Amino acid sequence: MNYIEDLEKVFEKHENKEIAFGQKAYMLNKFEFYGIKAPLRREIQKPFLKKENFPPKKELGKIIRELWEKPQREFQYFGVELFLKYVKSLEENDIKLFEFMITNKSWWDTVDLIAAKLVGEYFKKFPGKIKTYVEKWINSGNIWLQRTAILFQLHYKEKTDTELLSSIIKSLSGSNEFFINKAIGWVLRNYSKTNPSWVIDFVKNNPLDKLSIKEALRLIKDKR
Fold first, then answer.
1. Residue 215 to residue 58: CA distance in whole angstroms
2. Could you write out the DSSP letters of every residue in 92-116?
3. Predicted structure pTM score
4. Which residues contact 211 (CB under 8 A, 6 or more apart)?
5. Over the stretch 25-61, which tens digit does the pLDDT of each residue have?
């Protein structure tokens, strides 16, 4: 199977220009679309995500980069979902490919999945890499790498490193960037499901953007 060419043929067969127009507008005209809604896309791409059809792991970097060169956003969605199939066999150098995926064709729809699902799992397997990359991303000036630093612990629950989370948020507080302040509120809101008292105390004792505060406390009834 010529992996990407065959995938492209399947996507082209299900193209819907009317839906694509709406999808493109929703994403502020940043990307082209085939107009394939997520449920249908996941159905028609199933054969490409079957274990017997997986490309070798050593070819994944080349495939991901080719998918990222394609104009239609469905290819990048597929690329993230393909990488998720290899999450149990992550290797140290995969972080470089994640950085490529985050910093190219960057927008919340792919970055958030990469941050929480891929980078989050990577740092569980290689915790020794956290300090190096988190510091690098925070100081990068790239809002999508910064957003990744905030969100990689999104689903860590009781395993959340609150000292690290606090340090990351404090480093980025004062930002006027919507996507940073929204991410701060989101990660705090998610962690409030596990430890609401910590979130309340953190919000009370640290200067945060109004958006971050609103999002952080959204699920907490007793805000004291």
1. 40
2. TTHHHHHHHHHHSS--HHHHHHIII
3. 0.95
4. 178, 181, 182, 185
5. 999 999 999 999 999 999 999 999 998 988 999 999 9
